[in-house]
Amino acid sequence: MVLQNETPVVDTDGIEPLSERYQDQYLAMRGTDCYWTGDRVVEAADRFNVYLAVDDSVVVGYIDVTNCYEENEPFDLLVKKEHRGKGWGKKLLAKAIEMNRPKGMELLVDVENVPAVSLYRSLGFVKIPGENNQTAVWNI
């Protein structure tokens, strides 16, 4: 999907850049079963921006966004299960888009991930004609 449409105004209260204060909470949320673990993302500040959803001093979600390209990518977005459906994902993505301007954004999303596709569409992303992405995972 690619960001092409105007992004609606979204209240981003509670969204802040990764800081030392919340780093441990962020790292505890990040998976370790991939190359770009939380530790690697933190060490690659020249490549990623990280924004956190913070509710009453507790990190309830995050988004990692590349920052070194003309079209950057929302690389990883997660909201804790108990905080989903409360607008945190939309706030995180809106903040990432705002802070990325004037650069463009493009992302890959599994076509079967309906909640994610809906979120991206709600903030101006559109499907690239002729592209359908599905992800296969093979655990060894």
Task: Report on the architecture of this protein.
By secondary structure, the chain is an alpha+beta fold. The chain has a single domain, classed as Gcn5-related N-acetyltransferase (GNAT) (Aminopeptidase, 3-Layer(aba) Sandwich). Helices cover 27% and strands 24% of the residues. Strands 2-3-4-6 form a four-stranded antiparallel β-sheet, sandwiched between helices. Strands 1-8 form a two-stranded antiparallel ribbon. The chain has a two-stranded parallel sheet with strand order 5-7. A hairpin with a 2-residue loop joins strand 3 and strand 4. The longest helix has 13 residues, at 88-100. The radius of gyration is 15 Å and the shape is globular. 28% of the residues are buried. The model has no long low-confidence stretch (mean pLDDT 91).
Beta fraction: 15-25%
Low-confidence stretches: none
Largest sheet: 4 strands, antiparallel
Main β-sheet, spatial strand arrangement: 2-3-4-6
CA(first)-CA(last) distance: 30 Å
Can you tell me the number of structural domains? 1
How many individual helices? Answer: 4
Fill in the CATH topology. Answer: Aminopeptidase
Report Rg: 15 Å
Structural class: alpha+beta
Broad CATH class: Alpha Beta
Helix % is: 25-40%
Number of strands: 8
| H-E string | EEHHEEEEHEHE
